[in-house]
Amino acid sequence: MAEDPDYAEIRLAIQKLCSHFPGEYWRRLDCEAAYPEEFVVALTESGYLSSLIPEQYGGAGLPISAAVAILEEIHRSGCNGAACHAQMYIMGTLVRHGSEAQKARYLPDIASGKRRLQAFAITEPASGSDTSSIRTLATRDGNHYIVNGQKLWTSRAEHSDLMLLLARTSPKGSTGKRTGGLSVFILDMCDARSGGLSIRPIRTMMNHFTTEVFFSDVRVPAENLVGEEGSGFRCLLSGINAERILIAAECIGDTKWFLARASNYARDRVVFDRPIGQNQGVQFPIARAFVNMRAAELMVREAARRYEAELDCGTEANMAKLLAADASNEAANVCIQTHGGFGFAAEYDIERKFRETRLYQVAPVSTNLILSYLAEHALGLPRSY
């Protein structure tokens, strides 16, 4: 399988790091519903989680294509980047729209691992994917904003020191724009926990560390407003497009893991005196999954290229996410089918990876909503949502 030669050393280093976290490690955490603290610390200390932070703030100052390589290789090695990937894609919002004071205050600590920025609070119970309809309210009170409301599916909130929060600062429709009146804040989780923030874990079919977050008169310093008041949705796009691209990269990594497992097993498993991979009914689905992975991989690279050039990449980022999520979901099914009953055995790790990659048909945006977006923005069809 072709690789990006520019990041060969990074890929090899990630493979070496991940070799210390084999399947047994992830299976144990899965049973205990525990956070992979050792894995996240190893990535932090190696500098990979600060890859997108500019050098002047202690990061590596690498482009998003490097982060693509990092997260893809993590998943290709059988590990799970969901424990910490937000620290990468959130950087787009903070680096591009944060003030110099905010970047100087927070980025060095994030780069060093002193503080984690892992929580991205957008979705709410009543709004779902309709971000413009969020109700969490941030009301100006002198030098602070007072936040009240609720967020859902805020992953890693229990394991983060900082949160990027989207809240409403003026009523919906009052600005004349559907996405107007939204603002982004940097929330210090330690201060907030002692001042009205509460967190409730949500157990899911995969070990994803997701939560429900409640705000009751939580005070946020006005200086923690990212960008201008009411411009939150525009600020958010830098993070959302990066999120689509990097999660697509994870799906590519998952697909390569599934394909390697399926191919190896199909070569070695002998039934009726012949390897099962000799049967076209087995090899054709694996080959088709490989084709779809390569097509998705090329779209991920194109989306990353446009993001780095600061070009409009919403269409490409969404297509990359859809194609990659579909490819990994298909490969997961093919891998289970190839292994037969062994595909459901925990010790093979296939069923765990199947559950993990299945998430991306739904999150961080469902494939149906992506299709609606593309119909409107790429094809000029009437808006359906």
Identify the notable features of this structure and list them briefly.
3 domains; single chain; 385 residues; four-stranded mixed sheet; alpha+beta; 10 strands; Butyryl-CoA Dehydrogenase, subunit A, domain 2; Butyryl-CoA Dehydrogenase, subunit A, domain 3; Butyryl-Coa Dehydrogenase, subunit A, domain 1; 48% helix; four-stranded antiparallel sheet
What is the structure about, briefly put?
The chain has helices spanning 8-18, 23-32, 37-45, 64-76, 86-89, 91-97, 100-112, 189-193, 232-268, 280-308, 314-339, 350-358, 367-377, and strands at residues 117-121, 137-141, 144-152, 162-168, 182-188, 197-202, 210-221, 225-226, 270-271, 274-275. The protein is of the alpha+beta class and 385 residues long. The two termini are 39 Å apart.
